[in-house]
Amino acid sequence: MYFSVPEAGMRKETGMYISKRALRKHFDPREYPKETYLLCELEWRGGVRSWQHWVRNDDYNDCHAEQYFLEEIFEPRYYNICDMTWYLSYSPCWECCDVIRDFLEEQTNVNICIHVARLYYVNYPINCQALRELNRLEKVTIKAMEAEDYDYCRETFIQRSVHCDFSPKRFQSEIQRNCVKLKDILQDLHL
Fold first, then answer.
1. 191 or 177: which carries more pLDDT confidence?
2. CA quadruple 104, 64, 128, 166: dihedral sign
3. CA distance 23 to 89
4. Annotated catalytic residue: which of 66, 106, 146, 174?
5. Nearest to 146 by CA among 106, 173, 108
6. Which residue from 36, 95, 102, 143 lies 20 to 30 Å from 121 (Cα-Cα)?
């Protein structure tokens, strides 16, 4: 699925399914690609099914994936609670943490659970502080992706007819390292 970016006159790739190549490249915590991918699942309470979508950062318009999703893709419904689950290839930077916080102040009926494949520039204290502040919000949970999250993404965001041999068993040590490091950051034990 494609849609136009009006300001640029360019087309941007988004949709429900991600390619197996993109999943392997962008969610393997041993790799450090330039782009950030956001895989999202929305569930409106009282609804019968969930909605899946994905986006990547828009470098042409200098827009990170989180901001792009919240400002251009998400359609608010004020009559029901929305539980949003994100699988991000990188943890949000401090600017995106601010965007998410501002969004949640406006959208009081939205909860976000964020799973991250790798940590974004956590050697910068401002990013760590922003993650801590965001995680302290009642409507936000931030977690490092674990093996079952990778399996879920493969089963949910790759077309069923496509064989994908992406297995978290190959990078279990990196998963564990990210879990410990993020836990330390969120508990302010980092640096």
1. 177
2. positive
3. 9
4. 66
5. 173
6. 102
Distance between CA 87 and CA 54 in Å, rounded? 9
Q: In this structure, is the dihedral angle defined by the CA atoms of residues 150, 151, 155 and 156, taken in order, positive or negative?
A: negative
Active site annotation includes 72 = no
pTM, 2 dp: 0.87
Q: Is the pLDDT of residue 11 over 50?
A: no
Calpha distance 87→81 (Å, rounded):
20
| pLDDT single digits (tens) 31-65 | 899 899 999 999 988 777 788 999 998 777 778 99
Q: Is 46 left (phi over 0), alpha (psi -120 to 50) or beta?
A: left
Phi-psi region of 185 (alpha: psi -120 to 50; beta: other; left: phi over 0): alpha
Instruction: Give me the residue label for tokens 């790739």.
Output: 13
Tell me what percent of the residues of the chain surpass a pLDDT of 70.
86
